[in-house]
Amino acid sequence: MNIKNLFNKNIMVASMTTAMLLSAVAPGAVSFGAAGGTQAPLQFQIGSKKATDYRGEHMLASAPYLINGVTMVPVRALAEGLQASIHLDSATKKITLSKDGLTVTLTLNSAELTGTYIKNVKLPVKVTAVKGVTFVPAKMVAQLLGAETLWNAKDKKITLHTGKAQAFQFHFDQSEEGWKGDFADLPVDYNPDIYELEYARELLPTAGNKTNYGLKLNGMNRSDDLFMYVTKKLEGLEPNKTYHATLAFDLYTDQSGGMMGVGGSPGESVFIKAGFVSKEPVKVKVDEGDHFFYKVNVDKGNQITDGEDMKLIGNMVQPNSELSGFQPVAKEYSTTLQSNEKGELYVIIGSDSGYEGLTTLYLDNINVKLSPQA
Q1: Given 2.60.120.340, 3.40.50.2000, 3.40.190.10, 2.60.120.200, which CATH number is that of 168-372?
Q2: pLDDT 10s digits, 67-81
Q3: Span 196-219, mean pLDDT?
Q4: What residues form DSSP beta bridges with 294?
Q5: Do residues 305 and 354 make contact, with C-beta atoms less than 8 angstroms apart?
Q6: How far apart are CA 114 and CA 200, in angstroms?
Q7: Mean pLDDT of 95-106
Q8: What's the CA gap between 351 and 229, in Å, rounded?
Q9: Residue 89: what pLDDT?
């Protein structure tokens, strides 16, 4: 029987074909295109072989499962349900998924992945074959293909859907890509020599790196508080439209946990915040009695406290305190808000420091997705 006909027959047989192709030792590759149809949510449930997508309900060869909090689903069913094309290379055991100009390439028994706008990123769990069916982390792979994900903890269901979302990716290897950096929560008459403020595009300070750039923020907290931030205008949206906004980025930090410092620790007391607003974030002069201070014109809260416009999403502690040097930490944020009358929104990321010392951080792989709401 022709493999392509076998694929078109049903999900179960196609999933078995996937495993067969990936385990083959002979060279060669096979590719299938996405089916047409109206976009509809794709839904899996942990432990159930029933799945639903734009074609309705159908049966999977194997049920999705959880491992270390990560939802694993059959890659074939994921691709079909999102109407993405899938290319399987039996020689290299690589799986390439493509949809609307976005491409993700995975490898069996590996956490490595490559694709459009992706670099230095790993899956949270390796691509795994279970009883002849290849499973992948649903959330990360789907989001890299432009899909939104929603987890229902009570029913153990994950829903994935694509729509007219606009995606923005920033990697800074060629330029700052329109981002701006600035500093607030310090006296207007501050001494530049002792504050050591710096915003720049620089090579990330990781071993052997000669090509990967990020945005650098550097500053000495001399006033019991220091806010360092970057911001970017997002254009081309529908005016006065409500959007669900999601943000993901890598924060590079060299601070270990559990350290002591004046005013707090250099890791736990430097608070990372993120937000979306409909006006441009800028610093303004504010009269605080005997001194004028620079403050940012959005409500970011203060240090550990959330603001109306920016929320706390973590701190500066690196993932492995036993290793020296800068390490990346993945950060995420999401909210719902309305674009302004020009069809614009602004994204802002910053550190709100209670540690009275020097803080240096880098930002890279900033990804924004804006999904219009009904």
Answers
A1: 2.60.120.200
A2: 999 999 999 999 999
A3: 96
A4: 186, 285
A5: no
A6: 27
A7: 90
A8: 6
A9: 92
